[in-house]
Amino acid sequence: MATEFSNIKSLCLLRLSAIGDVCHAVAMVQAIQRQYPQLAITWVIGKVEYQLVQHIAGVNFVIFDKSRGWQSYVDLKRNLGKQQFDVLLHMQVALRATIASLMIKAKERIGFDKARAKEGQWLVTNRQIQPQHEPHVLDGFMGFATALGVKDITPRWTIPVPEADAEFVSSILSAGEKVFVICPAASKQERNWLPERYADVAQHACNQGFRVLLCGGPSDAEIQLAANIQQFCEAKIENWVGKTSLTQLLSVLKQATIVLAPDTGPAHMAVTQSTPVIGLYAHSNPGRTGPYCSQQYVVSVYHQAIAEQVQGEVPWGKRAKGAHLMSYIQTDVVIQQFDEVVSIVAGKNLSTSAN
Predict the structure, then answer these.
(1) What CATH number should be reported for the domain holding residue 138?
(2) Are residues 115 and 195 in the same domain?
(3) Which tens digits make up the pLDDT trace of 143-153?
(4) DSSP output for 292-333
(5) Full-prediction pTM beyond 0.85?
(6) N or C: which end of the chain has fewer CB within 10 A?
């Protein structure tokens, strides 16, 4: 299949959400761009996610605003006009994405393999990527690049940050400063760790000479969680939750020494900036959704949790359920992982200085 796409002129990518998955998709898009630098790429993307990637070169973004209900599909059809693409990469298994794909005209429509083409995706595609055995989400996305004949699928990211945002962050954080960023909130509250345990790790980091920042979005739940963490922590930690744009947050994560986060978008944003991430996992398998370049730093109780709920073989990607599962993650284990990552980072810095 790959060789027949070597002369394509136009490509449409359908991946609406979420932040972490969009970070994975950026690596795939830029792998395609390296092999096909003249290819015209259009990306149909969610309204929030667009705020993070809008400055990426060589991509025309078309926003799909799901908050507009059925009108969002009408808007998408109107915004695409009479465009017909050589290829559509249908990279989201969700009913709204299946419906949205009907607004996109393309000669070839590539979706996931049969085992993963759910929510009606198989009805609106005419080709599939190769089956993969227990892939990380990013590797699954790279299957689309491989289908187009891309040879170099090593993940690399270039997500531009406006100069004003970079300057704003530089005014807050000094170069070379030891910064520990905690992004404590996931999209579902059950995936959040306990605030008193976040506070204990923050206290430990402060005792080690780190400047500790809480970062995240502007939702009431995130703001309340950050306030609770501050209340439990005796040391002074800075609360930037809800006070940065996505690109400002990306710049903060770039300057961070270490990031601590549950299964949430900022963890994957930090990966794009080559910042070590300590991921906290209980509900989802970190082998599938963990921070891609920081899998060795993950603290996971997923296998314990899922073993309590599923007998026998566990399907890849099966989620564990329960609001109590994150309490299985003990503070001392996370602190131990923090110290190990600090040691690794210090070793790398010494090596860099010596060279």
Answers:
(1) 3.40.50.2000
(2) no
(3) 999 999 999 99
(4) GGGGGG-EE-HHHHHHTT--SSPPTTPPP--TTGGGGS-HHH
(5) yes
(6) C
Assess whether 39 and 82 both reside in one domain: yes
Copy the structure tokens of residue 325: 């599962």
Asked if the peptide bond before residue 18 counts as cis, ω within 30 degrees of 0, the response is yes
How far, in Å, CA of 7 to CA of 106, rounded? 15
Rounded distance between C-alpha atoms, residue 324 and residue 53, angstroms: 34
176 alpha carbon, distance to own chain's centre: 26
SS (H, E, C) 175-196: CCCCEEEECCCCCCHHHCCCHH
Average model confidence (pLDDT) across the chain = 96
Q: Is the pLDDT of residue 171 over 80?
A: yes
153 exposed, middle or buried (CB, 10 Å; 0-12, 13-18, 19+)? buried
221 with 270, same domain: the answer is yes
**14 and 120 part of one domain:** yes
The pLDDT value given to residue 354:
58
- Residue 85, helix vs strand vs coil: strand
Q: Tell whether 18 and 54 lie within a shared domain.
A: yes
Tokens standing for residue 51? 């705020």
Element (H, E) at 334: helix 331-354
Same domain for 56 and 190? no
130 and 214 inside one domain:
no
